Amino acid sequence: MKNISLAVLFLISTKILASVETPEMSDDNGYVEPFKMFDNVYYIGDKWVSSYAVETSSGLVIIDTLDFPYGKWIPTNLKKLGLEEKPVTHIIVTHGHSDHVGGAEYLQSLYGSRVIMTEKGLELAKDQANKSSGMNKFLPPDVKSFAQDSSGIVVGGTEFKFYITPGHTEGDLSIDFMAKDNGQLYRAFVVGGHGVNFQKPGLAKKFMASMARIRRLAIESPAVTVNLSNHPHKNNLFANRDKSIRGENKNIFISRENFSRFIEQQEILAAEKIREQLESK
Question: Which domains does the chain have, with CATH numbers?
């Protein structure tokens, strides 16, 4: 009886969220027209938070889902890209902050997707969902099994490797897969969380250790040459998009230096914040 009641409550809550009005697709709201980055990678995020669709032979994998209700833009973005007929088989969430996980349950209910995140990531998502309110009220996704460190999945011939890299939150999930450009493969990496966190003891130290680990992972052959940051300003996404529109000969999103600079910047910023934190005590 209890399980039936919970299922009914879930269905009612899902219908309520589905009835929330989709925000106007305006610049003031942060809307960005979706665009193709690689043969198999598309940007479907907004001005402030990244979301990517990765096309495989069996369907789409969405990485991060924006805050709710802005995640409701994602189906429209897929349609604009001509991807609306492809099943969304998986949703991967980098961490449990609402701007990354807020739209996951809505998309999961819409597509029947399998959601992948860490156990700590889901714990944070549930806490954030409980605190959410008004038009931003969201539900945590249903996660059947959790991503484990150094694990992975293969979806339609595309392998996604997972690394738990805490520091921004306890459950940051970094993702590694191959992007395709004119038949060539390039190793892409999504860092699970940017910015050191002082809210819990030891997170700052874990952040530095995670950045050092990612730096080591990135130089393993084939080296990472595609930086799919989960915030677009962190990898100069829109500046590179604009260069691409102007007709650069090569794919501007392929740059080993871009990723190494990004990691270095995260380490420098974190070290400065740690020093400021120590000096304030």
Answer: 29-279 (3.60.15.10)
Reported as type and span, the H/E element at residue 179 is strand 173-181
Half-sphere exposure of 4 (CA within 13 A, CB side): 1
Of 211, 210, 154, 147, nearest to 178 by C-alpha is 154
Mean pLDDT (the chain, rounded): 92
pLDDT of 281 over the 80 cut: no
Residue 13's pLDDT is 54
- Is the model's pLDDT at 33 over the cut of 50? yes
Yes or no: say if 147 and 117 are a contact pair by the CB < 8 Å rule: yes
Structure tokens at 277: 């934190």
Q: What pLDDT score was predicted for residue 9?
A: 45
Closest CA relative to residue 144, chosen from 84, 187, 183, 91: 91
Run of H or E including 121: helix 119-131
- b/e per residue 158-184 (b: at least 16 CB within 10 A): bebbbbbbbbbbbbbbbbbbbbbbeee
Q: How many CB atoms lie within 10 A of CB 261?
A: 14
Q: Half-sphere exposure of 2 toward its Cβ, with a 13 Å CA cutoff?
A: 0
Return the amino acid letter for 62: I
Res 201 pLDDT > 90: no
Residue 207 has pLDDT above 80, yes or no: yes
